[in-house]
């Protein structure tokens, strides 16, 4: 098989190709003077081809590149195009929260399928059921929980794995299993007498314990910073954080460290200074499962 990579995730694509003992082909890319994008697969392809392209910021450009790349790979001779998008943008707009809104993830997934993807591998999509809802092609959502958990193995004292909200509890639970630790999620509570709102772990005490907060995305860092402050004010000994996609909008890391987080680590779905854990292995495993 051949792995075709764009510049959006070249390092990760190279690791995946190495793990699968596949040849790596780099797409040529340029921008026309009017701002339109151009790309070209520089050789003939055949059989199954894996296209690795992440859609981290600037998302709109990268989504356009993804669609162009799928068509280019198909046109270069691929019989089957297996698309790997380590970070899939627009996944958080997974329903019409307000009347008149689009379901953005539905638009993106339908476009990927319509343009010619035969299978899709994503990493830790915000709501996994979006894939079943919008795709008819085979798909796998890779969860890098084991890899992130291993980074912290043996480094935390009496750890409690904490999700910033109930929706993210499954990540905390899976990570707790690997680390043989307790897990919980943060919940807003109102003091019935004073009316004061506090954010506290639903049922566990953090007093004197190391807390590892786990989430899918760090964008502005606001969610993580708020969760860290809650854990610290509830008596946590040290607060650490792990996320899959480090989007890190300007100032996010300052906010996170400023809130008292001792260390934050992410995977390499999005290149960043904290992207220290590779998802190449679980992606390669998923690709083996998709092989006919
Ligand atoms: C929200 O639903 C996500 O799971 C993340 O918690 C959120 O996207 C993080 O964003 P920010 O870093 O801007 O708070």
Overview of the structural elements:
This protein has 292 residues and is α/β, with parallel strands linked by helices. The protein folds into two domains: 141 residues, Rossmann fold; 133 residues, Rossmann fold, CATH 3.40.50.2020. The chain contains nine helices and 15 strands. The strands form three sheets. It has a seven-stranded mixed sheet. Helix 1 crosses helix 9 and helix 5 crosses helix 6. 47% of the residues are buried. It is elongated, with a radius of gyration of 20 Å. Helices cover 33% and strands 28% of the residues. The model has no long low-confidence stretch (mean pLDDT 95). The site of ribose-5-phosphate (R5P) has 13 residues, from strand 12 and helix 7. The site of ribose-5-phosphate has 13 residues, from strand 12 and helix 7.
Give short descriptive properties of this protein:
292 residues; alpha/beta; Rossmann fold; 2 domains; 7-stranded mixed beta sheet; 6-stranded parallel beta sheet; 15 strands; 33% helix; binds ribose-5-phosphate
